[in-house]
Amino acid sequence: MESGLHSASELEKQTKLQCSTLQRAQLAGQQVQDLRERLQTAAKHCDLLQHGKQHYEEFLEQLSETMKVNSPAEGLGFEIRLKLVLSRAEQLFRQEAGALREQTTDIQPTAKGTITEKLTRWKRTSDPASEEEKSK
Fold first, then answer.
1. What is the rounded average pLDDT of the residues 28-35?
2. Which of 57, 76, 83, 111 has its CA 20 to 30 A from that of 131?
3. Residue ranges of region Disordered (predicted)?
4. pTM, two decimal places
């Protein structure tokens, strides 16, 4: 009888171990599934980032061509190319600002003369004293 109790006790232990092992296997299976989903999501994000990077590189290339940044910049890294484009943009800005100042300086005397002439005409037409002198 004691051997039957011992067998029942062993059977109960084995059953508990089997249930515990089954639960751990199910949990591990769920974790594997979760990791697969996360990996797929990460792969999609990676693809999107790669696509964005490709568009960015194309934009940077077009911008470099438009701003006439030398072609050796193509072999350089992202950061250096960005610095070159920024430097070129600053250079073009300074050139345009200088050209605008020169143009404004050239226009100012002409504009002042035109404004003075218009004011003189306006004063003549709106001044009542000048109208009296005209009528005499």
1. 98
2. 111
3. 103-136
4. 0.50
